[in-house]
Write a structure and sequence with these properties.
By secondary structure, the chain is an alpha+beta fold. It has two domains: 158 residues; 91 residues, no CATH class. It is 53% helix and 9% strand. It has a four-stranded antiparallel β-sheet. A three-stranded mixed β-sheet has the order 1-3-2, covered by helices on one side. Strand 4 and strand 5 form a beta hairpin. It is globular. 33% of the residues are buried.
């Protein structure tokens, strides 16, 4: 299936900063919590004016886990169970704050959905990063314990992704539903087709419920995604070393950290009898570093 990524929708002007439609009493806390972040709140202010609330006492009966709250993208609706929604209400507000619709496409954070053709792309990174933001700005011990087993693999990949492209960029692009900017940034490291494939790998892991439904393939997709990221980090540090006078010892230390990242294995919270992916050898790592360095030297030095 050929994946199409649509151009990012325009950034909306804020019609009003008034938070009058705050039935659950959480909007002010959301805005206050993000005041020192790079999060663009334009979409949040606009969606908050028209969001509809639906009290649903059956919302805890989910397939994978109980949430107590759920944001419906298409209708700008917040479903909630009053007694349990406190845990993930900010998670759902992040979805509300990053969702807009244009040209029959739903743009939400790092995900794009085409309801007419039943297509979606970027779900894995989007959900993982939403949980990262929720824990970062509205964390609690209860929430931390909840997220331990939720989006476990895709969260670990997405955390490294944020380290690669920068927290400020990630927060801004997510809040503006600007998946193309993320892809453009990744393309500088490993090309457009590989950037698309990287995001698709994380989608596949998330759709398999973080590997519970297909642990063998999830190990393969994880290894592929980590290899893309590892090579991107090598290129990033090689540029710093060859073009920006990064000290040689710092460069070697950085490569050592990347080497450990690329050899990291999936650790499931419950034991699986699965075939482990082939070990990424030192020789393979040295070859990757050599190829990337030679390309940089040829181009710039």
């Amino acid at each position: 299936m050929k994946i199409k990524v649509y151009k990012a929708p325009f950034i909306e002007n804020i019609t009003s900063r008034e938070l009058s439609n705050d039935k659950l009493g959480v909007f002010e806390s959301f805005v206050e919590g993000l005041k020192d972040s790079s999060f663009n709140l334009s979409t949040f202010y606009n969606n908050s004016k028209t969001v509809k609330y639906i009290e649903d006492n059956n919302i805890d009966k989910g397939i994978f886990f109980s949430t107590g709250a759920e944001y419906e993208l298409l209708g700008n609706k917040l479903r909630y169970k009053k007694s349990t929604c406190h845990l993930l209400i900010f998670h759902e507000l992040f979805h509300m704050a990053s969702t807009k619709i244009g040209n029959k496409i739903i743009y939400t954070g790092f995900s794009q959905l085409d309801p007419k053709n039943n297509l979606a792309f970027g779900f894995g990174i989007n959900e993982a990063y939403t949980s990262i933001l929720d824990e970062r700005y509205f964390g609690s011990k209860e929430k931390q314990e909840f997220y331990v087993g939720v989006y476990q693999i895709s969260r670990s990949i997405t955390s490294l992704l944020e380290e690669l492209v920068g927290q400020e960029n990630m927060e801004k692009w997510y809040s503006e539903a600007d998946l193309p900017s993320l892809i453009k940034c990744l393309s500088r490291y490993f090309g457009l087709s590989s950037a698309i494939r990287f995001i698709d790998c994380v989608d596949k892991i998330a759709y398999c419920n973080e590997g519970y439904y297909n642990p063998i393939m999830s190990v393969i997709w994880y290894r592929e995604a980590i290899t893309y990221l590892g090579r991107a980090f090598i290129k990033k540090y090689a540029i710093e070393f060859y073009l920006n006078d990064m000290p040689v010892l710092d460069y070697l230390d950085a490569l050592s950290i990347v080497r450990n990242i690329m050899d990291k294995r999936i650790v499931y919270p419950i034991p699986f009898k699965i075939i482990k992916s082939r070990k990424y050898t030192d020789r393979e790592f040295e070859r990757d570093v050599e190829i990337i360095e030679n390309k940089l030297i040829k181009k710039y030095v």
